[in-house]
Amino acid sequence: MMNKIKKIQSNYPRLVFEAANLGVKRGGRHVFGGISLALTNRTLLYLHGANGTGKSTLLRTLSGRLGPATGNISLQIDTEDAILNDNLMVLDHLNGLKNTFTLLEHCNYFVRIINGTPPEPQKVMHSLEVLKLHHLATQPIKYFSSGQRRRAALLKFLLIDRPIWLMDEPTVGVDAENRKTLAMMLEQHIKKGGAAIVATHDDIGLKGEILSLDHYTPKQKDMGYWS
Amino acid sequence: MTNISVSSVFWSLIKRDIKLAWSQGGAAGMTLGFFLIAVTLFPLGIGPEASTLARIGPGTIWVISLLACLLSLDRLFQADFEDGSLDDLAFSPLSLELIVTAKAIAHWIATILPVILISPLLAALLNMPNLGYKMLILSLLIGTPALSFVGSIGAALTVALRRGGVLLTLLVLPLYIPTLIFGVGAVEAAISLTDPFPHLALTGAVSMISLIISPLASAAAIRLALE
Question: I want to staple A218 with a disulfide (CB 3.0 to 4.6 A). Which of A11, A30, B8, B207 is the partner?
């Protein structure tokens, strides 16, 4: 199975993705506070924590879509400040698939909207093969099962080459065999010099640092919205 | 990762949205159907007297165009918001302002342009005087971009609401009044052999102002929704 993912020689440039003293408030409630983390090349970081401790919120904050109440986020590539959006690839809870598109159309439009150019057909076919979706290439996505949809959403990491991957529960609905594929994708990415943060309740099967969000929930009782 | 052409990403997004609007479950076909049926109801309700129909013709077509536009607007951002593709778009090289502009343009091309093209047919059904046809098409071409752009603000504000359609109508319809007044004014002026140019110029002015203001307002509203 390992030979299916081609070896890519070019490693990513030196990157430092840092968040310092991050705190987020949602709807007047402190979700978490005082989180600091730093990601460099070849770092795999797992976010653990009970439901509601803010794993998704942290990923949303790190991807720049949710402004933190305290702290800041910075990305440096080759010791220069870099634009976060150009270096991230994010998988959310939602899959970002269009029911009426076929899988090929989805890949095509997705790449064009990010890169402006259509993807190379070989790259698309290779990505589909890695996630074992090639037999569904011309099927409209509305006929997919939820596990197949999740795998189709994972395609974005293979179609577009970005150094930092943020994944929010990538294993939901994915069967055992494909979880191994996911682990392999992550392993290759880390080997190439990329970095990844994965929020999950499952064991991916790869060694990585663990950040447990259980320790960052505010100790004191909330005073409500007007506090 | 550099050298990404922003304009080709922009056009890709427009193409994608037009394709979605005309695919199954898209709004374009339904909007056109609504326009046809709603205008056809007027002769049935008011009676077949030719002079009455000729009098109300331009106004009827303009009003039903506004309503047809509103009908399709509530899904402008909502469909992408609900399936997560709006989050993916946030990682494209386009700024959110350009994304909402592209989506408004796609809405106009996919949904409003067919309505404009079919309007002379319905004008004939309403016994509109021959002098008005050219001006009807011209005034619609110049005036309706304002409908898509102003409407996009309402669509962005109501993107996260479950029953946003009604609220959208309340928010947006009052803002359509200038376009309606000057658009109908141009057609009536052409029919009564007076100068339609001042009306057309004002219609165009409304469109241009909305082109400038609405991307900023819509992008701000979408940013809030993505938090």
Answer: A30
Domain that holds residue B79: 24-226
Assign domain A38-93+100-216 to its CATH architecture.
Answer: 3-Layer(aba) Sandwich (3.40)
Residue B6 lies in a domain: no
Asked whether residue B36 is assigned to any structural domain, the reply reads yes
User: B25: distance to nearest CA of chain A, Å?
Assistant: 8
Q: Write the DSSP assignment of A32-46 as a string of letters.
A: EEEEEEEEETTEEEE
User: Model confidence over B16-38: pLDDT tens digits?
Assistant: 999 999 887 778 889 999 999 99
Tell me which H or E stretch contains B76: none
Residue A1 has pLDDT above 70, yes or no: no
Chain B closest CA to A204's CA: distance in Å? 24
Q: Is the pLDDT of residue A43 over 60?
A: yes
Cβ of B88 and A113 within 8 Å? yes
The domain tally of chain B equals 1
Chain B interface includes A123 (CB < 8 A):
no
Nearest to B1 by CA among B89, B86, B92, B96: B92
Residue of A114, A165, A172 for testing the chain B interface, max B β-carbons within 10 Å: A114
- Smallest Cβ distance to A96: which of B1, B87, B93? B87
Q: Is the residue at B211 inside a domain?
A: yes
Residue written as token pair 């309402």: B154
Residues A150-182 have pLDDT tens digits of 999 999 999 988 899 999 999 988 888 889 999
- Per the structure block, which two tokens stand in for A99? 């029911």
Residue ranges of domains in chain A: 38-93+100-216
Alpha carbon distances (Å) from A34 to A75, B3, B208: 19, 38, 47
